[in-house]
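Crash report, auto-generated. Payload:
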Amino acid sequence: MDAMKAIRAPVIVAGLLLMASGTAAPAAEYQIVVAKMKFGSPPDRLHVGDVIVWRNDDIFHHTATARDASFDIDLPAKSQARMTIERVGAVKFYCRLHPMMTGELNVQP
Amino acid sequence: MFKNILAATFLLGLAGTAAIAADAKISDPQIAHIAYTAGQIDVTAAEQALKKSKNTDVIEFAKTMERDHKAVNEQALALVKKLKVTPEDNKVSKSLNAQATKELAKLGALDGSAFDKAYVDNEVAYHKAVNSALADQLIPSAKNAELKSLLETGLALFKEHQMHAEHLAGMTK
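Recovered output after restart:
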């Protein structure tokens, strides 16, 4: 019984360490929800390698399109699409079908 | 005074909404009919633009109007079916249709950039008018929560469309 406890403790510690390193790892996944004809706020801290899941909750077709043409994500009604961030810097984006819908990603190294 | 000016212009049909709401309570079946009619009118206007315009920006705009308003109206039809409500024709819908028929004829006589400008200007005015009707009359009067929510979706859509049309109007001057 004592031996079991002794084994379990390091396993738990290792698990916690893994979780901690998981949250601190550079690659993270974020969701940007498109709803009621608006883009949700992008996360403050984005890094190269992070993944953005664009989720369109509207009944309308949208796109998430970079002004600098670095990405162009097609988002049919009630769909989602994943995108990995590849470059550093500020990128303004908009919906090609609804140009008044805009936002900006700020990517750090 | 403002209402009189509105009534004297294109907004005749929608100004009528205020009258209805003041006289007798506007019902959900009537609201559903007005909202569907307002969407259908914009789809028809877009179809005309797609036949007549050669301007890429105007064509893209018209395609968006057609796609979005069809999407809302499909939802509206599904909702009235689910609620077992029969949309009820009324004087606002009739007035909207009468006005739209005139506008189609007016635009039908124009070509080229004159058509583009008239279409886009009309889209600005039309969306502005529908926005006011939705925000001031239809949404507050709607009793069913799902209908109200769909009208709110419609308002968010119409607002973006209005800004889009205004932006385009600035380009087609």
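Post-recovery validation: The domain at 26-108 of chain A is CATH 2.60.40.420 (Immunoglobulin-like).
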